[in-house]
């Protein structure tokens, strides 16, 4: 597993979910989910941390992200009238607070995540993945400091039989795990569009 250096200041929105150490999460798409793209998200040692419930009947690919207490943190949706693939997150009241917009690129996938952090600072994260979206690195767009890495387990039995993805996501200390999970889910959605 990769160890990432701590980000110098808290980076994110959901303070209870800021990584205290370099944290690796395993994001598994649920097999035979009746609700569409749903995910179980656990630490690498098996402790559940988030659950994502997809909606099979949603045109915008709605995914509700909750903590393990069942508290609704935010919903990820696809924006339909956009030049580039764009996903956004809205709070439980329907207010948009985060977006991920892909950029056209030959040979790799690129996207920017934009949000206002808990400190009030406008943040921009840059995600660059390989052509097959098997891996991606997320950096602070201004400083280029790595904040997370995403690795998709490629050609495992879940993927071959049921088309279900599994990702390992390593997050730097002081970085919001919920924001990085949202970016990983957007990467998965973009991959599913291909």
Automatic annotation (TrEMBL):
SUPFAM superfamilies in alphabetical order: Tubby C-terminal domain-like
Pfam family, one: LOR
Coiled-coil intervals, chain numbering: none
InterPro entries attached to this UniProt entry: LOR, LOR_sf, Tubby-like_C
Signal peptide: none
Gene3D superfamilies membership: LURP1-related
Family label: Belongs to the LOR family.
Protein name: Tubby C-terminal-like domain-containing protein
Organism (species): Neoarthrinium moseri
């Amino acid at each position: 597993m990769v160890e990432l250096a701590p980000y110098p200041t808290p980076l994110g929105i959901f303070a209870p979910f800021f990584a205290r150490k370099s944290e690796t999460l395993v994001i598994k798409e649920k097999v035979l989910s009746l609700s569409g793209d749903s995910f179980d998200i656990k630490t690498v040692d098996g402790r559940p941390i988030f659950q994502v419930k997809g909606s099979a009947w949603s045109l915008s690919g709605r995914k509700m992200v909750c903590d393990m207490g069942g508290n609704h943190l935010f919903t990820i949706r696809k924006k339909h009238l956009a030049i580039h693939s764009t996903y956004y997150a809205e709070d439980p009241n329907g207010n948009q607070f985060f977006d991920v917009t892909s950029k056209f690129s030959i040979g790799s996938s690129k996207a920017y995540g934009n949000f206002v952090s808990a400190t009030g600072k406008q943040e921009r994260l840059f995600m660059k993945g390989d052509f097959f979206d098997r891996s991606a690195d997320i950096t602070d767009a201004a400083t280029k400091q790595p904040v997370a890495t995403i690795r998709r387990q490629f050609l495992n039995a879940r993927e071959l039989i049921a088309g279900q993805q599994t990702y390992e996501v390593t997050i730097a200390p002081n970085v919001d795990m919920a924001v990085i999970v949202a970016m990983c889910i957007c990467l998965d959605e973009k991959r599913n569009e291909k």
